[in-house]
Design goal:
Blueprint: H1 9-24, H2 31-45, H3 56-63, H4 79-85, H5 87-104, E1 111-113, H6 139-157, H7 159-164, H8 168-172, E2 203-207, H9 216-224, E3 227-231, H10 237-240, H11 242-264, H12 272-286, H13 289-299, H14 307-321, H15 337-351, H16 358-397, H17 417-456
Parallel strand pairs: 1-2, 2-3
Helix pairs in contact: 1-2, 1-17, 4-16, 6-9, 11-12, 11-13, 15-16
Length: about 450
């Protein structure tokens, strides 16, 4: 009998497919994401289902040994490490971006970029208390709601859709919520209408590695509606995020301008109406077509080119190497000054040993000892600098450790649901074959031991 299972076989297969998809995309699923996916599937089956137990994750990993193979180790890296050793990764990322845009025939209207900008609004009043909660909302749920709005809006703005005069609900057979407009109680797991590969309308979404972007529901939703997600390199948003350069910076400038105008007029407080009007003006002046297009072109997202990003990284590396103005090199002491001083003291002592008095010879020996002691800290400093440079490069390249995952499609993120199912079937078949061979070996060893015992008797 035993306790009832938390997930049925179909649900466990979906979880395994999700983990494999994340692994092939270069972002291995964490424990929280896997548990979130399990809770999501349980709630779909029963709205009153409880969360999974604390020991469920360990038992799930033990029961699916195929997930331990070819697992990419994604290591977090600092912005400094990326700037010092991220040139080759940046070139490869832009090369993949250019290949996928060419293959999917995506134009400027099908390429999108999303980012987050913090806006803090406070209402100061007497007897008002603020309660801060770290878990008041779920980033994954917010991202999923945003993805539904983005799905409908990006479809209507696509030049391909406008040219072919395609309707969203007629093309997919449902709305962005996977429901029928005339029957909101009918829920679909996937869009009912299927089309040939050559007729599909793909959209490219370039986003950063925000915590909510790797959720199970968000990635599943994007796959169903042919939205290809391309993640930016870790700690590269200040270089590759077009929203930061094209939109957020002009919006911050307008924000500062509005504040200075209010202070000049003596307005030290804002009511809700004034704040709403000012915020709408700031938003309208920041989010303009010219600013958005300028951000894409300057950063090289469309048309894809790595020239600007690579130039920025090379300039950063050159600046870090040229910490001192070259004009000051003549004023710096020579690197071999300690060795030259030690050799000079030894040469003087050996040549004029018979001329100098005993105190003078003793003083020369002290000079040589002091110079030799000064050489040791210089060597330690040089070794420390070289070791730090080596550790920084090792830290950057550490995320490349492990066996490289082989994507099914031509692009690392181009994975469909059927490919995930086929991949899962291959993993299951290989696992069963390994178990069968293991059982044969164990049975053979038992038989050999029995034969040896019979011979001894």
């Amino acid at each position: 009998m035993g306790r009832p299972r938390m997930l049925i076989d179909v649900e466990e297969e979906a979880i395994v497919s999700f983990v494999i998809y994340k692994k092939k995309a270069g972002l291995p699923a964490s424990k929280g994401e896997i548990e979130e996916a399990a809770i999501t599937l349980r709630l779909r089956r029963s709205p009153d289902a409880k969360p999974v137990r604390k020991t469920w994750y360990s038992r799930f990993r033990d029961g699916h040994s195929e997930l331990d193979t070819a697992f990419l180790k994604a290591k977090e890296q600092s912005r400094v490490a990326y700037e010092e050793a991220g040139v080759e990764d940046t070139k490869q990322w832009f090369q993949q971006l250019a290949e996928v845009i060419t293959k999917l025939k995506a134009g400027a209207s099908e390429c999108w970029n999303a980012g987050q900008a913090g806006v803090r609004v406070e209402i100061l009043r007497e007897r008002v208390q603020y309660l801060i909660s770290d878990s008041a909302f779920s980033n994954g749920d917010i991202t999923l709601e945003w993805a539904k709005h983005f799905n409908r809006h990006s479809w209507e703005e696509s030049a391909t859709v406008q040219h072919r005069q395609l309707d969203f609900e007629e093309w997919f057979g449902c709305n962005e919520h996977l429901k029928k407009s005339n029957n909101p109680f009918r829920q679909y797991d996937e869009p009912p209408n299927k089309h040939e590969e050559k007729d599909l309308v793909w959209r490219l979404l370039v986003i950063d590695g925000f915590s909510g972007h790797g959720g199970f529901a968000f990635r599943e939703y994007c796959i169903k509606f042919n939205i290809l997600v391309a993640f930016l390199l870790p700690h590269s948003t200040h270089i590759l995020q077009s929203m930061d350069l094209g939109v957020f910076q002009p919006m911050e400038n307008v924000h500062q301008k509005k504040l200075r105008e209010a202070l000049r007029k003596g307005n030290l407080t804002f009511n809700r109406r004034d704040f709403a009007e000012a915020f709408q003006e700031i938003f309208n002046e920041g989010f303009t077509a010219a600013h958005i297009i300028s951000g894409f072109e300057k950063l090289g997202l469309f048309p894809p080119t790595a020239r600007r990003a690579v130039t920025y990284l090379l300039m950063k590396q050159l600046k870090s190497k040229q910490l001192v103005d070259p004009a000051y090199n003549s004023l710096l002491p020579p690197e071999t000054r300690f060795s030259a001083a030690s050799d000079t003291a030894r040469h003087v002592g050996e040549r004029y040993h018979g001329i100098f008095s005993s105190p003078t010879r003793q003083g020369l020996r002290h000079i040589r000892n002091i110079v030799n002691k000064a050489i040791l800290p210089e060597d330690v400093i040089t070794k420390y600098v070289d070791d730090r440079r080596t550790r920084v490069e090792k830290r950057h390249n550490q995320r490349k450790l492990g066996k490289r995952a082989k994507p099914v499609g031509d692009y690392i993120h181009n994975v469909c649901l059927q490919e995930l199912r086929n991949q899962q079937e291959e993993f299951i078949t290989e696992g069963r074959e390994k178990d069968r061979k293991s059982q044969i070996r164990s049975t053979r060893s038992i038989i050999l031991r029995e034969i040896e015992s019979l011979k001894e008797e």
